[in-house]
């Protein structure tokens, strides 16, 4: 049965899904990496596809930007379509001297400015962490592929412009800033499903280096490969 934001029928979405923020990145992944991709969603332009990757049935769908947006899609995918493994493949800004543009960052845990956890648990901070099994798999897959990959804390900010000084939290070893992983990790814990965020550095907040919007949409294929291999890994 379709949900308010996803028009797929039950069974049209695989139980393993890649989640880029950009729906056109989802289309690129489907067209370039999946065999026989079939589009299952275009509600609000949030394109979603199911196909096979190396013989395994997988899906890919955009989430939009920010925790409010990804939480709508992740909630519906988990509770209505039975998705069990969700991997965000996103872009992020480096806030760390050792993390360079186009490197991969796997978010081991995510600090956040969002109130997503506090809405449920006002009395304490809940640590938003990735699923360790997925994290371990992704790290070794990336390493075996020879991709420069960092693992550690990231910051999921509610704001792209403004908000708290990301560079200050960078001094605590936090590697990069993006806008969704903490929300996805929290929903993974809440619904007992596996979640992970793999990000490509698209901007460097210390050096001012940046990639174009076309590169963000169409390249960063290392992250896509690592995401897909992790999705199907036993
Ligand atoms: O490239 P995506 O996956 O959208 O991720 C990053 O890019 C967007 C901001 O430009 C935010 O969604 C941020 O998390
Ligand atoms: O600087 C950046 C780059 C990508 N995504 C973000 O949220 N911030």
What would you say the CATH architecture is? 3-Layer(aba) Sandwich
- The count of helical stretches stands at 8
Rg on CA atoms, Å = 16 Å
The CATH topology annotation reads as: Rossmann fold
Order of helices and strands: EHEEEHEEHHEHEHEHH
What is the topology, as strand order, of the major beta sheet? Answer: 5-8-7-6-9
Secondary structure: helix percent: 25-40%
DSSP strand content: 25-35%
Pfam family, one: PNP_UDP_1
InterPro entries: DeoD-type, Nucleoside_phosphorylase_CS, Nucleoside_phosphorylase_d, Nucleoside_phosphorylase_sf
GO molecular function, one term: purine-nucleoside phosphorylase activity
Subunit structure: Homohexamer; trimer of homodimers.
Short description:
This protein has a single domain, classed as Nucleoside phosphorylase domain (Rossmann fold, 3-Layer(aba) Sandwich). Helices cover 33% and strands 27% of the residues.
Describe the 3D structure:
By secondary structure, this protein is α/β, with parallel strands linked by helices. It has a single domain (16-232), classed as Rossmann fold. It is 33% helix and 27% strand. The protein contains eight helices and nine strands. It has helices at residues 23-33, 67-81, 116-120, 132-144, 166-170, 181-191, 213-218, 221-232, and strands at residues 16-19, 35-41, 48-53, 56-61, 85-94, 104-112, 149-156, 176-178, 194-204. It has a five-stranded mixed beta barrel. Helix 2 packs parallel to helix 6 and helix 4 packs across helix 8. The chain is globular. The mean pLDDT is 96. Bound molecules: 1-O-phosphono-alpha-D-ribofuranose and uracil (URA). 1-O-phosphono-alpha-D-ribofuranose (R1P) binds next to strand 5. Uracil is lined by residues 91-93, 160, 177-179, 202-203.
């Amino acid at each position: 049965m379709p949900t308010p934001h996803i028009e797929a029928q039950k069974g049209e979405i695989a139980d393993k899904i890649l989640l880029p923020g950009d729906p056109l990145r989802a289309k690129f992944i489907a067209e370039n990496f999946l065999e026989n991709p079939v589009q299952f969603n275009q509600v609000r332009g949030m394109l979603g596809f199911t196909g096979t990757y190396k013989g395994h049935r997988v899906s890919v769908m955009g989430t939009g930007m920010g925790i409010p947006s990804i939480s709508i899609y992740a909630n519906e995918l988990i509770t209505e379509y039975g998705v069990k493994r969700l991997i965000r493949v996103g872009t992020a800004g480096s806030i760390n001297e050792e993390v360079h543009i186009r490197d991969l960052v796997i978010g081991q845990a995510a600090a956040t400015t969002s109130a997503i956890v506090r809405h449920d648990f006002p009395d304490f901070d809940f640590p938003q962490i990735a699923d360790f099994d997925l994290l371990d798999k992704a790290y070794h897959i990336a390493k075996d592929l020879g991709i420069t990959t960092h693992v550690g804390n990231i910051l999921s900010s509610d704001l792209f412009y403004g908000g708290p000084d990301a560079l200050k939290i960078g001094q605590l070893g936090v590697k990069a800033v993006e806008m969704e992983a903490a929300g996805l990790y929290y929903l993974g814990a809440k619904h007992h499903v596996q979640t992970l965020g793999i990000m490509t550095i698209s901007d460097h907040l210390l050096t001012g280096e940046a990639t174009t919007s076309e590169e963000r949409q169409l390249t960063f294929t290392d992250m896509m490969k690592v995401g897909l291999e992790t999705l199907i890994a036993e």
